[in-house]
Amino acid sequence: MSDVEQGEVVRRVLGWYELHARDLPWRRPDATPWEILVSEVMLQQTPVARVLGPWRDWIDRWPTPSALATATSGEAVAAWGRLGYPRRALRLHQAAVAIVERHGGDVPPTYDELLALPGIGDYTAAAVASFAFGARHVVVDTNVRRVLARLETGVADLPPTAASRALAGSYLPAATLAPRWSVASMELGALVCTARSPHCDACPVADLCAWLAAGRPLPETPVRRAQPWHGTDRQCRGALLGVVREATAPVARSAVLSAWPDQDQANRCLGSLLADGLLHDRLLHGEDVLVL
Questions:
Q1: Considering the chain, what is the average pLDDT of its residues?
Q2: How far, in Å, CA of 209 to CA of 271, rounded?
Q3: Which of 6, 52, 220, 236 is 20 to 30 A (C-alpha) from 147?
Q4: Which residues carry out catalysis?
């Protein structure tokens, strides 16, 4: 697309967002940088509907990095509950401790400072710098890549490469509009330009879309199916971790392992939970027990 056409895309998508954006607490004008950081970590690989309740509970309990830093990592994992991918709770706790130690308890405003925090990657650093502090950064998630792939290249999606990032950068407007554009293009991908059932009739830029003009061609490679849940190591890890999380006292190793029928898999998954720091083994009254 020409610069003029890209500018028209930005203008229309921003207008669409004004009318159709979901009212999410971390998007409100009074949302703090910490609230935005927590939301970005929780939203990784997790839909908004599952995040809303845990996010509110987390912010009520630990409204600042300093509040979380005074808690133990085990308390953070326990509070994560069934949100999934519990290592994210450890990363948030480690980031909170670093924010207190390095930045006096305030979430740092720059991309480089955010990226230097434990467990914070490129996307999260760019998103927080943009959404919390109004900085101009390329913020590219799965939704943005898909929207721009369809608009510009006529294919159903693009992988996360330097080329797809450069494409996103070519659409990034001036600093005053950049954060709004980033969240608006994400929202368009989440609500309209979806992976499996896009609502092209509701798209504000349908007449400019190369993919729609090409007849909505299927991906060159089949869409990868989601990993089945039943019987996987993820399910096993969740079951073992849940026994300890829901207990009010240390739990015997044997009792934790008995929560899963396949003992070889249970032992392997328990070893990974210990290695990840999500569980810790202790010797209590001569018995091997597990704690968060």
A1: 94
A2: 49
A3: 52
A4: 40
